[in-house]
Amino acid sequence: MYYLLIAVQVFCLYHAYKNGKPYYWYFLIFFIPAIGSLIYIITQVYNKSDAEKIQEEITTVLNPTKKIKDLEKKLAFVDTYTNRMALADAYFANNDIPNAILNYKKTLEDIVQDDLYARQNLIRCYFQLKDYAEVIKQAEYIKSTPEFKGSKQQFCYGLALNELGKPDEAEAQLKDIDRPYSNYVERLALAKFYIENNRIADGKALLNEISIESKRLTKPNRKLYGATIVEVERVLASLK
């Protein structure tokens, strides 16, 4: 029962964050878990069409491998592009990167389907494995698409280029991620990139920009980006 309550609480907090709910819901859910979560689900989440989805998400929190096993059975029964992509996504969500790669690559054999989504996820998979050559290879297929510009995939592409000794090309990609009041993790990485390449003034200027912005964030966002902000201040202090 305790673990079920924790799972429901985590789901409510995630749903509140994902849907931009007012900050008082976080306090209600966190400090009064059972009653707060129940009130939140009844007033903010529940309707008949959502019931099965809520149950599925809670089950996934409690038993993350169940969804994978169910999808494996579904794929074995009907091997379709949609079923295989769903399985690949489930592997990726469960941090089973090798199996995620295997299934994303399998979907590329279906030439009728658009390969954008599969390659977007392959870039993230290979980046986690630090296979930077494959990150670049997959990015080359989709870097001309509008979805690539300013994306996580472009960020991974830029870092991969830097890792393989191409800092000028890397900077061109990483600078596209530098957008005010967003992408704090990526902008911190860009600042460190500047510093590592002896461009201290550029790195310090970006860190100061992030530091100033952080003081204007809402409390939920300050909590969300707390670790990144702490790191920004630490690096800034080391440059004084």
Main sheet? none
Gap from first CA to last CA: 52 Å
The helix/strand class is mainly alpha
Helix content: over 70%
Description of the structure:
- It is built from 15 helices and no strands.
- It is mostly helical and 240 residues long.
- The longest helix is centred in the first third of the chain and has 17 residues.
- The chain is flat and about 55 Å long.
List keywords for this structure.
flat; 15 helices; mainly alpha
Topology readout:
Blueprint: H1 2-18, H2 24-31, H3 33-45, H4 48-62, H5 64-77, H6 81-93, H7 97-107, H8 116-128, H9 132-142, H10 152-163, H11 167-174, H12 184-196, H13 200-214, H14 219-224, H15 226-238
Helix pairs in contact: 1-2, 1-3, 1-4, 2-3, 4-5, 5-6, 6-7, 7-8, 8-9, 8-10, 9-10, 10-11, 12-13, 12-15, 13-15
In short:
By secondary structure, this protein is mainly alpha-helical.
